[in-house]
Amino acid sequence: MVFSGLFFLTIFLPVSLILYYAVKNRTYRNVILTIMSLVFYAWGEPVWILLLLFCSVFVYLFAIMIERSNRKNLSKTLLIVSIAILIAILGFFKYSGF
What we know:
The protein is an all-alpha fold. It has helices spanning about 5-20, 25-45, 50-70, 70-95. It has four helices and no strands.
């Protein structure tokens, strides 16, 4: 599915917007956006949802560790390690010819 595709413009986007605006609770709105984003992403190739979820959880956990760190040097190290791991993942998929 592409953003300019007929299915996206006539069905997926309107359904997403109707669901989003039908709910008033901000938390539920975020859940709806997350689910619709995952559905859109999975439309191309569902197996890559696992990679997306892994990277999201990975970044979230490292952000929590950085926030809870009391030492500036540890925070910098955690940030550098997390960025390096994400760049390694990107490099693998970009240059490995998978």
